[in-house]
Recover the amino acids of this structure.
């Protein structure tokens, strides 16, 4: 986020710089736990308190909610970049 307000970014030739985007990953071991006879219990309050977690079976609703969350974060992040770098065409560099 610090680079968003910079006029210039200086990095070494071997540096890995990210693009404007959002990634969310989490391993899911539900099926493996099931094979081993291990049942994991989670108690929550709220419909979307736990969507994608390593220990529960993922539903279509979970994935939909996670996609909505990631898209919301991308919108906010892109807006922050655009606000702080008004000369940048955010759409052309967002991936």
């Amino acid at each position: 986020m610090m680079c968003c307000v910079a006029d210039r970014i200086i990095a070494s030739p071997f540096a890995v710089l990210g693009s404007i985007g959002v990634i969310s990953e989490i391993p899911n071991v539900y099926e493996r736990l099931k094979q081993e006879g291990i049942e994991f219990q989670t108690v929550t309050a709220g419909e979307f308190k736990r969507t994608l977690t390593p220990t529960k079976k993922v539903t279509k609703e979970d994935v939909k909610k996670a996609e909505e969350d990631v898209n919301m974060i991308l919108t906010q992040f892109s807006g922050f970049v655009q606000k702080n770098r008004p000369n940048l065409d955010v759409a052309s560099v967002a991936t």
Summary: The chain has a mean pLDDT of 88. The helical segments are 30-35, 60-84, 90-93. The two ends are 16 Å apart (CA to CA). Residues 51 and 62 are 5 Å apart (CA to CA).
